[in-house]
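Customer escalation, tier 2.

The customer says the design service returned an amino acid string that "doesn't look like it belongs to this structure." They asked us to rerun it and document both sides in this ticket. The original structure tokens are below, unchanged.
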């Protein structure tokens, strides 16, 4: 390294000697000629630095965009999964409700087969006699109204005709 500095120093001293022998215009041209490669090199380095910074900026923007895209995809995936789970839960609840309804309908013996109204109708029928024995010409017709039997007499016939003693 010392040799490199020494040779650089010698080159600089020779340049100074040569510049002192030259006229001011020649010195200016010589300095410009010596500085031209250095300026070109510096310009090239600045250009490379700008290009490198632009490339890094572009890569950083690309990475940020990719991160955002992955985050959005994850969010959508989680939302879709949550929606599917909610639908599955709803279907499960509906099935459970349906099973409960079916079980209630299928359970025998929970409700009596004959109601109080059926019992009252049967008792009235026994008191009045069997309904099948009622003669169609008989003016006494039995009607059901609010779980009670009402006998309605025909308009033309009398009570003697309804007894069936003819």
């Amino acid at each position: 390294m010392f040799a490199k500095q020494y040779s650089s120093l010698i080159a600089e001293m020779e340049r100074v000697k040569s510049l002192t022998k030259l006229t001011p215009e020649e010195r200016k041209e010589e300095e410009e000629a010596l500085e031209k490669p250095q300026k070109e090199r510096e310009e090239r380095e600045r250009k490379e630095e700008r290009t490198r910074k632009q490339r890094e900026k572009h890569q950083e923007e690309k990475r940020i965009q990719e991160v955002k895209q992955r985050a959005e995809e994850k969010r959508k995936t989680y939302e879709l999964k949550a929606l599917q789970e909610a639908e599955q839960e709803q279907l499960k609840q509906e099935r459970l409700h349906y099973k409960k309804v079916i079980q209630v309908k299928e359970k025998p013996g929970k409700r009596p087969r004959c109601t109080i109204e059926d019992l009252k109708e049967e008792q009235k029928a026994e008191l009045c006699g069997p309904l099948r024995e009622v003669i169609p010409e008989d003016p006494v017709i039995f009607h059901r109204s609010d779980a009670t039997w009402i006998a309605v007499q025909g308009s033309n016939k009398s009570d003697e005709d309804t007894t069936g003693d003819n």
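Tier 2 assessment: The sequence is consistent with the input. The chain has two domains: 11-89, 116-154. The chain has four helices and two strands. Sent an explanation to the customer and offered a walkthrough call.
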